[in-house]
């Protein structure tokens, strides 16, 4: 995939997030943990953000955005959530190593993360075990997306801090 296509996908993904009434995140295991960190940062931007599976997460609706991560693009829970989101009129931003996967097919925008999936037993893409490179990349990529959105917003760090948890 060319850098220009990837750049265009990132720009479109950022626009979807900013225009969404609400942003939801879903991933399993360590990918899910990385997206929980992303959800926190999106909340700091003032976006209504929810983690799928949390008891306080509402129903997804039209124009909302689901950010979904699966290295293989075939994690059943993540793919089904993406399909349900689309059925409800929501947009889906997928992070995956597999641009031809079921998750990618269900997505509005696909952000291809050039990292090994968890079954790269021969270490062709990374010597790290079990998809670690993908999971780490999800964190870095979503943090970079947050940073780009923050910088273009003109919001000062002190303003973001007002939304930081104060019941710690």
UniProtKB/TrEMBL annotation:
One of the GO BP terms on file: carbohydrate derivative metabolic process
Assigned EC number: 5.3.1.27
GO molecular function: 6-phospho-3-hexuloisomerase activity; carbohydrate derivative binding
Family: Belongs to the SIS family. PHI subfamily.
SUPFAM superfamilies attached to this UniProt entry: SIS domain (SSF53697)
SIS domain ranges (all copies): 13-155
Protein name according to UniProt: 6-phospho-3-hexuloisomerase
Higher taxonomy: Bacteria, Bacillati, Actinomycetota, Actinomycetes, Pseudonocardiales
Signal peptide residues on this chain, from the entry's feature table: none
The organism of origin for this protein: Prauserella sediminis
Keywords assigned by UniProt, alphabetized: Isomerase
